């Protein structure tokens, strides 16, 4: 592969050729690359594309087949033959138009599509020589268009809304406020292409995304040195200009159910929620500090820009020696980032080179950047030091055996071949399962091994609910996700047209009932409808009270959360657009006012920034409600134990226990009388409230755990349950006390979180013999089963980075 540090960016556009004479014998051109030594000090794009001269050579390699097999092999059916012909004629505008008939994402696909598996695999040239470099030509067209901002002629984009006469570029809006409304959930490639097709077919389209950035894996998974973010943003922006609405910080299944989407006027829903649930290795030591899932590492670095730390707020720990386990695109991306962070990096793969699943180009680039490959080996155990930090790994050699269900030879361990290597960072890049939030909230959706079951058109088991991409396939590719999105858009268009909706019936109406029935919207009267979720939302601070100089109570505008939250659940916020994502327990909610209450203690940089917010300010992001509600049952007498700011988090739980008919005793601890929080509010929801202070300035003199023991001496009655919230040492000690009382006890845990939606695994905790994700399985767990030692260590993973961050803030 040719390597050079100059690219086509400054070259002149292709000149028209008078006569085209194919030259199939010319060698396939290799894209210009940033020299390896220039790559490691940042995130500059590595593949620089073709020069105009290379384009001239490459287009003449195309045989212009009468029946071009490449077009059929392209999952989007881009007219490859026609765009290459136009390119050969020097007509870049026509080449761009040809691609744009099928896809507005030439810049993205030209960079990340695995062309070798699709169009290039089918290219006739490949039978005897090398296939035409279709992907690189596509990218060239996109990049040249970007430079000269070609307008697309009316004919270029095919179908469109009937009441629009002219379409001259992606900046023409197709918005038609009388058209049926379609909700697309998730903003990855599957939804993006569906949005493109549906808006052109005349529908109103809203894309709902859980994260604060659009693009799915393109945004949180694929590094910017492979896909520069300005390309991603510009191509998504085309959809916005065409009239597609985007709503971030909205998690379907939590912010709103599918029934509610229908009830608010959406005529059909497409689920493109991806496969972001990371697989773990299931070996001892995988929760040590320094062990990441690829999703967590990549989300921290790509989405939260941890590579800029401390200029950015989110930290990441990449030590001197990194081992990335796996052989797919995630493994290459994680390894290449580790190299850029100065780590000696090895990709360990349990099969051989031939079985690697990553793009061939990425494997080559990883090697050029100094990533080592260790084939036919797998980790069996990880070892840490007394602080729980990863230090060493034990691995075992493998040989290849019979073919398994993946169609590849199965890896077979060689007994006695174990060996150990020192390591500071291990990244698990061994696959992902579909994101489960919508499935869990929609039991009528048929699933198989977590994947939503669909027919060829993407129809699920629920009428007018379609799905595609990784949520239906499991981890796959960008272009197959797009193919699914396109097929579903076609089917949605048909299904909605069959409904023959009068334009009035799709107009959203104000909500008047809280509950939604399955498939409620169509044919119902306006009085049963919900208002549609706002396409954008400001999370404004409506009220603020400083409880102590360090602890603030806020009322924040968050209508969907206010409607759906339950005691024990939390939100993830970012106070500013550069902040970390942090979880905060929902203290209360008011559906009528569309607001929730949060209490924030300034402990780190992000919480300090939040506490400084004032009435009228807005939080940059707020996502929720997240996590499982607390277990609230009628059990008789419940003891609620809280320390510090945990008292605020206890309020809704205590209130719910009492509402369920229990007697509630609240035992709370503070450092001193001045630190006592929310006493009045607590007394309003508990039958009995007792305080302890460490310095004895109020209530019981001692810790809250000592207060528990003291209280029990005078209250021997039977207890139905205990609920503990607060600092980890306090929860651990309180759980030890209730163990001796034989009282079922729940602890609300607060591990470090990133996405809060189950996609990174950063919040994993060990409960009994299982590893659980606190953000989706918790935050409440059986306190007698929690591994508090591990939890304590994991919450200290970034203490040093937090110190650096605070020093910069001061
Ligand atoms: C690190 C990495 C690198 C990759 N590199 C390549 C590559 O180079 N080439 C290639 O072809 N393929 C690559 N892949 C695979 C490819 O990215 C995926 O197959 C593709 O992105 C799937 O698209 P999707 O639209 O189905 O879902 P995704 O891209 O996963 O997008 C799903 C989106 O839905 C959101 N979401 C989930 N649940 C909800 C909810 N309840 N409500 C609202 N939003 C929700 C998620 O936050 C996410 O943004 C890579 C994958 C990874 C992980
Ligand atoms: S899985 Fe990412 S925070 Fe829980």
What would you note in describing this structure?
The protein is of the alpha/beta class and 810 residues long. 31% of the residues lie in helices and 22% in strands. The strands form nine sheets. The chain has a seven-stranded antiparallel sheet. The two termini are 49 Å apart. Bound molecules: flavin-adenine dinucleotide and FE2/S2 (inorganic) cluster (FES). Flavin-adenine dinucleotide binds at residues 112-114, 185-191, 208-211, 216-217, 221-222, 251-253, 272-274, 276, 298, 329-330, 333, 359, 435, 437-438, 469-471, 476-479, 481.
Summary, kept brief:
The chain has 28 helices and 36 strands. With 810 residues, it is an alpha/beta fold. The site of flavin-adenine dinucleotide has 41 residues, from α10, α15, α17, α18 and α19.
Task: Walk me through the topology.
Layout: E1 32-33, H1 36-39, E2 47-49, H2 52-61, H3 69-73, H4 80-88, H5 92-102, H6 106-112, H7 119-122, H8 125-128, H9 134-148, E3 181-185, H10 189-200, E4 204-208, H11 217-220, H12 229-242, E5 245-247, H13 258-263, E6 266-271, E7 277-278, E8 291-293, H14 294-303, E9 321-325, H15 329-340, E10 344-349, H16 360-368, E11 372-375, E12 377-384, E13 390-403, E14 409-413, E15 419-422, E16 425-428, E17 432-433, H17 437-441, E18 447-448, E19 451-452, E20 465-467, H18 470-473, H19 478-499, E21 539-548, E22 551-557, H20 559-564, E23 570-574, E24 582-590, E25 595-601, H21 605-611, E26 618-619, E27 621-626, E28 637-643, H22 646-659, E29 663-670, H23 679-685, E30 688-693, E31 700-701, H24 704-714, E32 721-725, H25 728-741, E33 745-748, E34 764-767, E35 770-773, H26 774-777, E36 780-782, H27 788-795, H28 799-809
Parallel strand pairs: 3-4, 3-6, 4-5, 6-20, 8-16, 9-10, 9-16, 10-11, 28-29, 28-32, 29-30, 30-31, 32-33
Antiparallel strand pairs: 1-2, 7-17, 12-13, 13-14, 13-15, 18-19, 21-22, 21-26, 22-25, 23-24, 23-27, 24-25, 33-36, 34-35
Helix pairs in contact: 2-4, 4-5, 4-9, 5-9, 6-9, 10-19, 14-15, 15-16, 22-23, 24-25
FE2/S2 (inorganic) cluster (FES) binds at residues 753-756, 758-763, 773, 775.
């Amino acid at each position: 592969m040719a390597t050079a540090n100059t690219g086509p960016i400054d070259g002149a556009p292709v000149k028209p050729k008078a006569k085209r004479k194919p030259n199939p014998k010319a060698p396939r051109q290799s894209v210009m690359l940033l020299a390896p030594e220039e790559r490691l000090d940042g995130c500059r794009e590595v593949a620089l594309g073709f020069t105009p001269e290379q384009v001239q050579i490459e287009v003449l390699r195309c045989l212009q087949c009468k029946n071009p097999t490449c077009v059929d092999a392209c999952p989007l059916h881009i007219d490859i033959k026609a765009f290459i012909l136009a390119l050969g004629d020097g007509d870049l505008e026509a080449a761009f138009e040809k691609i744009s008939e099928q896809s507005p994402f030439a810049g993205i696909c030209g960079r990340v599509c695995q062309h070798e598996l699709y169009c290039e695999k089918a290219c006739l040239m490949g039978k005897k020589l090398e296939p035409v470099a279709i992907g690189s030509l596509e990218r060239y067209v996109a990049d040249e268009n970007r430079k000269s901002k070609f307008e697309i002629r009316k004919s270029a984009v095919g179908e469109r809304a009937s009441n629009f006469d002219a379409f001259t570029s992606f900046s023409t809006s197709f918005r038609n406020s009388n058209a049926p409304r379609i909700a697309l959930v998730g903003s990855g490639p599957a939804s993006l292409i569906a949005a493109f097709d549906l808006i052109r077919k005349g529908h109103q389209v809203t894309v709902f995304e859980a994260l604060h950035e659009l693009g799915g894996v393109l945004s949180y998974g694929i590094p910017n040195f492979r896909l520069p973010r300005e390309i991603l943003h510009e191509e998504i922006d085309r959809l916005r200009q065409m009239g597609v609405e985007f709503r971030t910080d909205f998690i379907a299944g939590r912010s709103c159910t599918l029934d509610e989407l229908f009830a608010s006027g959406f005529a059909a829903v497409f689920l493109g929620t991806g496969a972001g649930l990371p697989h773990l290795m299931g070996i001892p030591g995988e929760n040590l500090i320094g062990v990441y899932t690829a999703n967590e590492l990549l989300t921290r670095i790509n989405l939260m820009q941890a590579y800029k730390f401390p200029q950015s707020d989110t930290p990441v720990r990449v030590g001197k020696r990194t081992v990335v386990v796996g052989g797919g695109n995630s493994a290459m991306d994680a390894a290449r980032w580790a190299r850029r962070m100065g780590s000696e990096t090895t990709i360990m793969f349990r099969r051989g080179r031939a079985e690697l699943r990553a793009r061939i180009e990425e494997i080559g680039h990883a090697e050029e950047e100094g990533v080592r490959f260790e084939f036919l080996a797998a980790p069996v155990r990880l070892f840490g030091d007394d602080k729980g930090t990863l230090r060493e790994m034990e691995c075992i050699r493998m040989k290849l055996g019979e073919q398994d269900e993946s169609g590849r030879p199965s890896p077979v361990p060689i007994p006695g071949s174990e060996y150990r290597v020192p390591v500071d960072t291990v990244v698990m890049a061994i696959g992902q399962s579909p994101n489960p939030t919508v499935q869990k909230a929609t039991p009528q959706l048929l699933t198989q091994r977590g994947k939503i079951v669909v027919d060829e058109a993407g129809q699920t088991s629920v009428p007018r609910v379609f799905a595609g991409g990784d949520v239906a396939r499991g981890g796959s590719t960008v272009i197959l996700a797009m193919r699914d999105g396109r097929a579903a858009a076609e089917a949605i268009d048909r299904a909605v047209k069959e409904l023959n909706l009068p334009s009035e019936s799709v107009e959203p109406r104000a909500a008047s009932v809280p509950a939604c029935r399955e498939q409620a919207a169509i044919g119902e009267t306006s009085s049963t409808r919900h208002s549609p979720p706002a396409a954008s939302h400001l999370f404004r601070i409506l009220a603020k009270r400083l409880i102590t100089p360090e602890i603030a109570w806020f009322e924040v505008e968050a209508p969907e959360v206010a409607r759906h939250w339950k005691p024990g659940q939390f939100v993830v916020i970012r106070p500013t657009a550069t902040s970390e994502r942090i979880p905060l327990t929902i203290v209360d909610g008011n559906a009528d006012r569309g607001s929730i209450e949060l209490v924030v203690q300034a402990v780190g940089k992000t919480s300090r920034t939040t506490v400084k917010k004032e009435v009228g300010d807005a939080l940059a992001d707020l996502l929720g409600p997240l996590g499982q509600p607390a277990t609230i049952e009628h059990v008789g007498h419940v003891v609620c134990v809280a320390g510090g700011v945990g008292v605020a988090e206890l309020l809704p739980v205590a209130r719910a226990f009492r509402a369920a008919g229990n007697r509630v005793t609240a035992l709370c601890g503070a450092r001193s009388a001045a630190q006592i929080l929310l006493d009045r509010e607590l007394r309003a929801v508990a039958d009995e409230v007792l305080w302890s202070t460490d310095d004895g300035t109020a209530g019981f003199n001692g810790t809250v755990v000592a207060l528990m023991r003291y209280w029990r001496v005078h209250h021997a009655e039977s207890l139905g349950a205990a609920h503990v919230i607060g600092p980890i040492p306090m929860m651990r000690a309180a759980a030890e006390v209730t163990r001796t009382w034989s009282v079922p006890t729940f602890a609300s845990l607060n591990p470090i979180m990133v996405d809060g939606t189950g996609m990174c695994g950063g919040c994993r905790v060990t409960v009994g013999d299982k590893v659980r994700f606190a953000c989706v399985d918790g935050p409440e767990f059986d306190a007698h089963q929690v591994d508090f030692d591990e939890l304590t260590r994991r919450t200290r993973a970034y203490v040093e980075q937090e110190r650096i961050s605070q020093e910069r803030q001061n």
